[in-house]
Amino acid sequence: MSKLLLCIVVVTDTHIVDKVVECEHNETKSTEKIALENKFKEFLKDCFKKADVSAYTKVDLANDERKLMLTLYCDQKFLDCGAQEFKNNQAFRDLQVQINKLENKTEQGIYHKCLMYIFKK
Ligand SMILES: *[C@@H]1O[C@H](CO)[C@@H](O)[C@H](O)[C@H]1NC(C)=O
Ligand SMILES: *[C@@H]1O[C@H](CO)[C@@H](O)[C@H](O)[C@H]1NC(C)=O
């Protein structure tokens, strides 16, 4: 999966991360979904504090969106922390169910294709 392809420390550079950010921007989201995703990030507040993507020296990390992408996809400490939070927090799990209900298969397909296109080359 493209997730792993993004997470290659010696390869991943600013350009690649910016492309992924662009795919994310190109996804059409309802305001409802955006609101739920913001809540989702709120649950992960403490996990974000543990995140460290400084190993990605080819990426200009001055930009918060780039940092966010690398964190969400690649940072193992963050991902472990998130999994733990998910396990321990019923409200967080309920939120995930709500978000899943709003997933649009067409949009998901477009996003997936957009990512695949980046890593094809
Ligand atoms: C995002 O959408 C714009 C406008 O439709 C398009 O030009 C651009 O290539 C898209 N970006 C990606 C990464 O697909
Ligand atoms: C899903 O996304 C597509 C493409 O953006 C859009 O045309 C369609 O109306 C959306 N469907 C729902 C149920 O929101």
UniProtKB/TrEMBL annotation:
Q: Where is the signal peptide?
A: 1-19
Keywords, comma-separated and alphabetical: Signal
Protein known as: Uncharacterized protein
